[in-house]
Amino acid sequence: TTIYLKDYAPFGYLVDEISLTFDLAPNATRVHSRIAFRPNPDATDRTFFLHGEQLSLISARIDDQPVEPEVTEKGLTCKVPDGPFTWETEVEIDPSGNTALEGLYMSNGMYCTQCEAEGFRKITYYPDRPDVMGVFSVRINGDLPVLLSNGNPVDSGEGFAEWHDPWPKPAYLFALVAGDLVAHSDRFTTVSGRDVALNLYVRPGDEGKCAFGMEALKKSMKWDEDVYGREYDLDVFNIVAVDDFNMGAMENKGLNIFNSSAVLASPETSTDANFERIEAIIAHEYFHNWTGNRITCRDWFQLCLKEGLTVFRDAQFTADMRSAAVKRIEDVIDLRARQFPEDNGPLAHPVRPESFQEINNFYTATVYEKGAEVIGILKRLVGDRAYAEALDLYFARHDGQACTIEDWLAVFEEVTGRDLSQFKRWYSDAGTPRVSVQEDWDGSTYTLTLSQQTPPTPGQPDKPPRVIPVAVGLLGPNGDELRPTEMLELTEARQSFRFDGLPSKPVPSILREFSAPVILDRDSPTSERAFLLAHDTDPFNRWEAGRSLARDTVLAMAVDGAAPNASYLDGIHAVLRDDTLDPAYRALMAGLPGQSELAGTLHERGITPDPMAIYQACEDLRQALAETCRDMLPRLHADTRVDAPYAPDAEQSGKRALAGTALALITRLDGGELAAEEYAAADNMTLQLTALAALLHAGKGETQLSQFHDQWRDDRLVMDKWFGLQVSMAKPDRAAQVAQALTQHADFNWKNPNRFRAVMGALATNHAGFHHASGAAYALLADWLIRLDPVNPQTTARMFTAFQTWRRYDADRQALIAAQLDRIAATPDLSPDSTEMIARIRGG
Ligand code: ARG
Ligand code: ZN
């Protein structure tokens, strides 16, 4: 069944208070609920329907009198009094049999919950919708040492604990944890003097991996006070790490639950990239306390209201903690890798979708990452000061409410007096706009003519022009700035912008800072891009110039058998040896676009991509870069040595990234000699993994791989890396085979989402391996999706994105993929989650 935004209607009843009592038992947990309902004056429909799935109803009462509700697989209905009443039920559930990891489930003997989006209905009967907000009190009876729920602790003793959350909240923010856990504790005093107890709960043995996450939490709390004026509002803030989790983490009020991969870290077991990601996710979940919890969503169509804004806020935080330029480039790399394929394929949907079947399928790169880009556009259009004022108004006006995008836009319209109806198309219209550029120079006036066009997406044939902020700077012949960055507002399909009184024809630097998530179509001469690579004063666009040179040379190599472009090689050589540039930035400059992204670019240009040819061209270009840089690489590698004790900060990790780039290039020249030395000497996971990857690329590293296994066999998170790396590094004709062999490994616990994704996710992103002409990888992934679907539909459905680009490829590959999709679709009792994904991918 499809649900539509336009059908929204409020629930007929309001919840004042809800009390829950849990009697925990692995296979037969009893949940008693007592809920104070009263008629909702804003609603007309008085149908009393409560969601409930996979529950055994033991008893139901209204105002202490037994009632017999009508129960279906989806919930219950009951005749209720006209005025306020108390509703009580007792249900029995089976946490230990819950492999879907939604609702109340067990992971290694620990009870834990995941309720967003619609998991609470697997815990008890309730109006499980975000616009129903209630004050929760929870009592947990169980013989485990740690018993946690939302809010503040009220009482605890032998075998029980009671919690009270004073802030009304929707059911999706409910959480419960019970287990044999240990706490890493600290404190934080808020700006107004509230003393908050902070705890990070982990399994015994993981205590040594908590310190970094705790520091990240304190930094986040401080940052949200300083930058957004947002203070924490409870006496405790608890975080729990769990091994079996479908997503990264969850912002339950006062009790965040994290995938252990998104919080546990130590230098020996985590890479610099892991540390950066953990810091960002801790911040993200913490920031949800205001953008998500205090102000929540009216319905799930408004998901981007909390997610886009919170991703935007966590990106601002990372930019402040680390390097803003590096963070922006990393985010654009990620956007192009994950969101652009979605926006330009059969799964394209608006940032605010208007219909869905399974909401879990809409926790997407479009809702999250494009949703954050849209906030960035808005901030560029109104300016920093109006943005800050509008946010203050948003928090003041909507605290305690369940809101919509309309509410969000209204505060901006009020503060700025600006009509945002055209801007709103960013929320309603799917697809990535393409902006093309025409230049005109008459001796003193320079005119830029920008045109925009957005291709059709499923269900949306016509795309009217939208407002696109295009940041432009003009450079003179020596790289001097003739005009500093100016924000052009493209609002028409085609529009000209004049720059008068220029001494000479400028070189334009367009879409600085990636000021909007668009594809810039511009055929500029190689010399101009080489010039920008050397001189652009905007760090993003300087990187972008190198990126577009790389893209064009590698595609010319793949398609026409061209030789590597010398401007590219010389330009990168110059960047690598330029000690005035941040090492992290230099490492990013030296990277190539992903092979899937390159395939997408060819497809946009009307050429059917050949994955093997793209793979080979990338290999050849890397080899040519190694040759070009031969003489400077040893020095570069030596200069980026970190002698200080390991710290996961921006400075050290930038050096290690550049050292890693040097090592990978050197390995192409020395066959792995240096990499083997580095591996043997490595005392941190970043170096150990970089060296191992270099060895595997060189066709070596078998010994190190088994050493690595012996060293880390008891560390779940490191073993995920061991599984993933082998599949990522496998040569195209071996990838499916390597992945298949790993699924037979004793440690391949496929019901654990992290382990499943380590292997299958790596296979799907090994572009040439996944798209190998044999079709072996398609078949292997399909086999495993069929197997996982009845166990864990959410994690299964998410992996179908591997197939979303299938229409780009040749007829043989399309036929192979279609056959696998049809085979999966024909599986009896396939989950609604997977059914929806296949229908959309197949149909679009
Ligand atoms: N709200 C969580 C976050 O953004 C993600 C929860 C996703 N849950 C789901 N069922 N898809 O941090
Ligand atoms: Zn979020």
Task: Give a verbal description of the structure.
- With 844 residues, the chain is α+β, with helices and mostly antiparallel strands.
- The protein is 41% helix and 21% strand.
- The relative contact order is 0.07.
- The model has no long low-confidence stretch (mean pLDDT 98).
- Arginine (ARG) is lined by residues 116-117, 247, 249-251, 284-285, 307, 360, 363.
- Keywords: Aminopeptidase, Hydrolase, Metal-binding, Metalloprotease, Protease, Zinc.
- Belongs to the peptidase M1 family.
- It comes from Cribrihabitans marinus.
- This is Aminopeptidase N.
Describe the secondary structure blueprint for this structure:
Elements: E1 3-4, E2 13-23, E3 29-39, E4 49-51, E5 56-62, E6 65-66, E7 70-71, E8 75-77, E9 85-93, E10 103-107, E11 110-114, E12 134-141, E13 146-149, E14 152-157, E15 160-169, E16 176-179, E17 182-189, E18 195-202, H1 211-228, E19 236-242, E20 249-250, E21 255-259, H2 272-287, E22 296-297, H3 303-321, H4 324-343, E23 355-356, H5 365-382, H6 384-398, E24 402-403, H7 405-416, H8 425-428, E25 434-441, E26 446-453, E27 468-475, E28 481-490, E29 494-499, E30 507-510, E31 519-521, H9 526-535, H10 539-560, H11 566-576, H12 583-590, H13 595-604, H14 611-629, H15 633-639, H16 650-670, H17 673-681, H18 685-697, H19 702-712, H20 716-729, H21 735-743, H22 753-765, H23 767-770, H24 776-788, H25 793-799, H26 811-825, H27 832-843
Parallel strand pairs: 2-12, 18-19, 19-21, 22-24, 25-31
Antiparallel strand pairs: 1-23, 2-3, 3-9, 4-8, 5-6, 5-9, 7-8, 10-11, 11-16, 12-15, 13-16, 14-15, 17-18, 20-21, 25-26, 26-29, 27-28, 27-30
Helix pairs in contact: 1-2, 2-3, 3-4, 3-5, 4-5, 5-6, 6-7, 9-10, 9-11, 10-11, 10-12, 10-14, 11-14, 12-16, 13-14, 14-16, 15-16, 16-18, 17-18, 18-20, 19-20, 20-21, 20-22, 24-26, 25-27, 26-27
Bound molecules: arginine and zinc ion.
Keywords: Aminopeptidase, Hydrolase, Metal-binding, Metalloprotease, Protease, Zinc
Organism: Cribrihabitans marinus
GO molecular function, one term: metallopeptidase activity
